[in-house]
Automatic annotation (TrEMBL):
<feature type="transmembrane region" description="Helical">
    <location>
        <begin position="141"/>
        <end position="160"/>
    </location>
</feature>
<feature type="transmembrane region" description="Helical">
    <location>
        <begin position="449"/>
        <end position="473"/>
    </location>
</feature>
<dbReference type="InterPro" id="IPR020846">
    <property type="entry name" value="MFS_dom"/>
</dbReference>
<dbReference type="Pfam" id="PF00083">
    <property type="entry name" value="Sugar_tr"/>
</dbReference>
<feature type="transmembrane region" description="Helical">
    <location>
        <begin position="231"/>
        <end position="252"/>
    </location>
</feature>
<feature type="transmembrane region" description="Helical">
    <location>
        <begin position="166"/>
        <end position="189"/>
    </location>
</feature>
<dbReference type="InterPro" id="IPR005829">
    <property type="entry name" value="Sugar_transporter_CS"/>
</dbReference>
<keyword id="KW-1133">Transmembrane helix</keyword>
<feature type="transmembrane region" description="Helical">
    <location>
        <begin position="108"/>
        <end position="129"/>
    </location>
</feature>
<feature type="transmembrane region" description="Helical">
    <location>
        <begin position="410"/>
        <end position="437"/>
    </location>
</feature>
<keyword id="KW-0472">Membrane</keyword>
<dbReference type="InterPro" id="IPR045263">
    <property type="entry name" value="GLUT"/>
</dbReference>
<feature type="transmembrane region" description="Helical">
    <location>
        <begin position="201"/>
        <end position="225"/>
    </location>
</feature>
<dbReference type="InterPro" id="IPR005828">
    <property type="entry name" value="MFS_sugar_transport-like"/>
</dbReference>
<keyword id="KW-0812">Transmembrane</keyword>
<protein>
    <submittedName>
        <fullName>Glucose transporter type 1-like isoform X2</fullName>
    </submittedName>
</protein>
<feature type="transmembrane region" description="Helical">
    <location>
        <begin position="358"/>
        <end position="376"/>
    </location>
</feature>
Length: 578
């Protein structure tokens, strides 16, 4: 793989560097903070940015998101060969006992095979905080690949060994691997990404996930690996991203934020940051990390239980949890797992329904690519609101199309368009934002514990939807999507009222948003609001665009007994964190 570095200096020819030939330092000095590296279409929108995206950063992100690819692939891979694996289960049972398996027991074994993946994910997710603190973000990902290789190997050799147990335990181990990946990868990416690119690069979590999901659908068709002889290879492919990540990650730096704040190793943090930025000008990043460390020294070691009891962190924790629920309880998993049945219920043939289901994967990948440049322009909160609102509208259209499918032939096309539009709006917001925003809402101390809780909730909700939706499909029939419609309305309202915008804010600035009732930031110092006398002039951090006098460079907030107003003063102004 070759990376083309585009220099801002027009007098200087474009230079090429091969990160696989020398991953620690690119050839020449082509990858400095004033240049942009373009590797694949997902990152082309960043070719106009002036700093931050270096070859080493791209290489590190590519290696890290292989974990999310693993998650996406193993989420969708088990669905296509269902009937074939059920036949395998029946065959093994008959060979062992000499009897034919009952349908109920076979369905039970199949349900265990599918659902144990989510159970492993919950265990991996809740373990992420401890592993991230002890082994580091990169170290945790490296060790986690052992579980990925073990799980993939067990699934791949289950037919050869004639063992249902190997298949089930393989799904458990790969579930643990994916659960840990869903926590560590977003955490790692958020800590190594430059502030101005954090949103767009965070979206690559969802992009890798959707590519994995799409490939699992393609490989699972009958003319590929969805056959009686091909399904072990289909499941065993899981070892490839694990081995690839195990080979690539050793060349990547550890999170500088983890090294400086958690391990107190400033020299190593500087070295890692210089590699990521390909520049020695890293003092701004170091100072920002030190400011966060100083503000949160009491939170260096915090457990999940301490996090839950901490009143000042309960609101961001609630937001993180609800954001995860807005992803999993939006109805998108019902579309992924049962889209073929939904299309058949709307009147399409089985063959056509399978191809439209693959089309859903293509739409997910394309729309995730589209959302990347929007993430740092429109902002997380805005995109999440648009996404939930669009899903709410088209969930109603899906319900209508299921209700009137017998009246008009063209209604089946309304069902397809509504489902694809539902997926489009999911990709714009709820698909990617919950993965990154939980890491953004917390400072270094409570972040691992918060992500562990969020991932536990995410995986548990995933498990519940997979378990309950078939019963909903049987009980509610054409009204199956109405519960999701109601939940989408609730999530939209919560996001509108409670979720802050985190675009272009440092972790400390985001944390300060939740302290606004207790303290006020004046010239860089956190001072209790109650200690300020009425009528005093305060200098507060306030973004220029939020100031009524935004056409001036500076403003001053005058606090009066009954109201506040902004007045122009001489330049001595900081940005408002409130």
């Amino acid at each position: 793989m070759r990376i083309k570095c585009l220099s801002n200096d027009r007098k200087r020819p474009n230079l090429n560097c091969s990160i696989l030939a020398d991953v620690t330092m690119c050839y020449s000095s082509c990858c400095n903070c004033q240049e942009v590296c373009s590797v694949w279409p997902a990152l082309r929108f960043l070719q106009n940015c002036q700093e931050g995206l270096t070859c080493m950063l791209v290489f590190t992100i590519t290696a890290a998101v292989l974990g999310m690819f693993q998650f996406g692939y193993n989420t969708g891979v088990i669905n296509a060969p269902q009937k074939i694996i059920e036949e395998f289960i029946s065959e093994v049972y008959r060979d062992r006992t000499g009897k034919y398996i009952t349908e109920d027991f076979r369905n039970l074994l199949w349900s265990v095979t599918v659902s144990i993946f989510a159970i492993g994910g919950m265990i991996g997710g809740i373990s992420a905080g401890t592993i991230a603190n002890r082994l580091g973000r990169k170290g945790g990902l490296l060790v986690n690949n052992i579980m990925g290789i073990l799980g993939g190997a067990l699934m791949g050799f289950s037919k050869l060994s004639h063992s249902i147990e190997m298949l089930i335990f393989g799904r458990l181990f790969i579930g643990f691997n994916c659960g840990l990946n869903t926590a560590l990868v977003p955490m790692y990416l958020s800590e190594i990404s430059p502030l101005t690119l954090r949103g767009g690069l965070g979206t690559l979590n969802q992009l890798a996930l959707t590519i994995g999901l799409f490939l699992s659908q393609v490989f699972g068709v009958q003319f590929a690996l969805g056959t009686s002889t091909g399904w072990p290879y289909l499941l065993g492919i899981a070892v490839i991203p694990a081995i690839l990540q195990l080979c690539l990650l050793p060349f990547c730096p550890e999170s500088p934020r983890y090294l400086l704040i958690s391990k107190q190793q400033e020299s190593l943090a500087r070295e890692a940051l210089q590699r990521l930025r390909s520049s020695s000008q890293i003092e701004d990043d170091i100072e920002e990390m030190k400011a966060e460390e100083q503000a949160h020294q009491q939170e260096v070691e915090i457990t999940m239980w301490q996090l839950i009891k901490n009143k000042s962190l309960q609101l961001p924790l609630l937001i993180g949890v609800v954001m995860q629920l807005s992803q999993q309880l939006s109805g998108i998993n019902a579309v992924f797992y049962y889209s073929t049945n939904l299309f058949m219920a709307a009147g399409l043939s089985e063959t056509t329904s399978k191809y439209v289901t693959i089309g859903i994967g293509i739409v997910m990948v394309i729309m995730t690519l589209v959302s990347i440049p929007l993430m740092d322009r429109a902002g997380r909160r805005t995109l999440h609101l648009y996404g939930l609102g669009g899903m709410f509208i088209f969930s109603i259209f899906i319900t209508i199309s299921l209700l009137v499918k017998f009246l008009y032939e063209w209604v089946m096309y309304v069902s397809v368009v509504s489902t694809l539009s539902f997926v489009v709006f999911f990709a714009i917001g709820p698909g990617s934002i919950p993965w990154m925003i939980t890491a953004e809402l917390f400072s270094q101390g409570p972040r691992p514990a918060a992500i562990s809780i969020a991932m536990l909730v995410n995986w548990f909700a995933n498990f519940v939807v997979g378990l309950v939706f078939p019963m909903m499909l049987f009980g509610f029939e054409s009204y199956t999507f109405l519960p999701f419609t109601a939940l989408l309305a609730i999530f939209w309202t919560f996001t509108y009222k409670k979720v802050p915008e985190t675009k272009n804010k440092t972790f400390e600035e985001i944390a300060a948003l939740f302290r606004r009732e207790d303290v006020i930031n004046i010239n860089g110092m956190n001072i209790p609001r109650k200690s300020i006398q009425s009528g005093e002039f305060l200098f507060e951090d306030k973004p220029v665009e939020d100031c009524p006098l935004h056409h001036h460079h500076h403003c001053q907030l005058e606090e009066l007994p009954t109201r506040k107003k902004n007045v122009e003063v001489t330049p001595n102004h900081l940005e408002d964190q409130l």
